[in-house]
Design a protein that fits this description.
With 437 residues, this protein is of the alpha+beta class. The chain is built from 17 helices and 18 strands.
């Protein structure tokens, strides 16, 4: 069952009947029923890595390589490190640090668990498109360094995953939640396995770094051995909308898995044991909104405030709840030459207008903006940038609710109108909408 919006939150917009039929046609044409996670377990499928897919699926492989997914975790090197490791001192949380190179390797000098300054070698990078974080080894285990590089703003800022600990302090390093394995490995590698250490922490092993073919299609060994064998591979297009969104939501959601509820060996920030075709709720607890309250994850109206949110938002959206649309109706995981692998450029409203069939010549009657102005673009009003990421209010909401500056003003949150008209106040936006009605 698809979850309804939490009580007290704004209901999603109601789609027109014609729009419903058209939206379903976007999600239509799906292939016959796919294998599920249980099918893959039954045939004993194991992970083999994306290179095993290249020979038979060259176009999909080539397209996937052009997306951001393969590069979400990489060995540290000239091609992967985007920050200037040039030795220039910088200060974060009152601690003077340096990022530099030595003998072909990358290092960050920061506070060690001992309280003394120490040089930590960067062994892998995380991300690198909006922000980049760095994995090192400390006291025998892998951890995320306490600073990250913000790509757009080109500056260093703290990375603190628990309680916003001051960078490099003993409490930061002691927190097992800052360990890379239970926090990051499940969504930044393929075929992740955790092994316990004697100190209570965990190490990870994996088949492939980054987000690969098997992240969405499941372990592929049985399919590689016998491509015609039924139930040997997951084709997400053959799954129902709930299962399809669960695949994307396994990483594009905020939450955790627990030993008691999900069988995880420790608390992880990624779904434990999830395979494509599974029910995500059996492997993961998504962070919940508190109606009327601002939390680190949510705004008071239930929409997301922090990143890793797209699937959480989309589950509150009428396009999913009522029209059965899925993430891949707008995004192509096999690659498109647009940010976010969207099927069309952000300024191209063709997908929206194929269902919401406004006459393009009359679009300004709906938007109250010039048809050629960015304010007439669907996503500027219905998917505003209100989600924090590397920079504040950097990512687009995926709830696609209608703008409501009066509610936003009441709840103390940003709204679509004043995100564009930054020199205006929310009172002005409320007056405009009242005048248009």
């Amino acid at each position: 069952m698809s979850p309804d919006p939490p009580p007290g939150l704004r209901p999603p917009l109601v789609l027109l009947a014609a729009g419903l039929a058209c939206a379903c046609s976007l999600a239509g044409g799906r292939k016959p029923a796919s294998a599920t996670g249980d099918d893959l377990r039954a045939v004993g499928a194991g992970f083999v890595g994306s290179e095993s897919c290249r020979e038979c699926h060259p176009d999909q492989f080539r397209g996937w390589r052009q997306t951001r997914h393969p590069y979400q975790e990489q060995p540290a090197g000239e091609e992967s490190v985007v920050a200037p490791f040039d030795g220039t001192p910088f200060e974060v949380d009152g601690v003077e640090m340096r990022a530099f190179r030595r003998d072909g390797a990358f290092f960050v000098r920061t506070l060690a668990p001992s309280g003394e300054m120490e040089d930590f070698r960067v062994i892998r990078t995380i991300g690198g498109f909006r922000k980049q974080r760095y994995v090192t080894r400390v006291d025998g285990h892998e951890a995320v360094l306490p600073v990250q590089w913000n790509v757009v703003g080109r500056y260093w800022k703290p990375y603190s995953s628990v309680g916003h600990e001051t960078v490099g302090t003993e409490r930061f390093w002691a927190s097992l939640a800052n360990e890379w394995a239970p926090r990051c490995s499940g969504c930044h590698t393929v075929g992740t396995r955790l092994t316990a250490r004697s100190d209570g922490g965990f190490d990870a092993r994996w088949t492939e770094l980054g987000v690969g073919c098997e992240s969405c299609h499941g372990p592929g060994s049985a399919h590689v051995t016998d491509p015609e064998r039924p139930g040997a591979i997951v084709n997400p297009a053959g799954l129902g909308p709930e299962q399809q969104v669960d695949i994307c939501g396994s990483c594009h959601s905020r939450g955790h898995a627990e030993p008691a509820a999900h069988g995880a060996p420790t608390r992880t920030r990624f779904p434990w044991g999830f395979l494509p075709g599974d029910r995500l709720a059996d492997h993961y607890e998504v962070d919940r909104a508190l109606p009327g309250q601002t939390t680190p994850s949510h705004w008071p109206d239930g929409s997301s405030r922090s990143h890793h949110q797209q699937a959480m938002d989309f589950r509150l959206d009428a396009h999913f709840l009522r029209a059965g649309m899925v993430c891949t109706d707008c995004h192509d995981p096999h690659g498109r030459p647009n940010p976010g692998e969207t099927r069309l450029p952000a300024r191209d409203d063709t997908l929206c207008l194929s269902c919401h069939d406004w006459d393009r010549a009359r679009i300004s009657e709906h938007t109250h903006h010039d048809p050629e102005d960015v304010g007439s673009t669907c996503i500027e009003c219905h998917m505003p940038r209100i989600v924090n990421n590397a920079e504040p209010l950097e990512l687009r909401s995926h709830t696609r609710w209608s703008p409501d500056p009066a509610a936003a003003m009441r709840w103390g949150m940003p709204d679509a109108c004043t995100r564009c008209h930054e020199g205006r106040g929310q009172e002005w936006a409320v007056e405009c909408l009242e005048a248009w009605r």
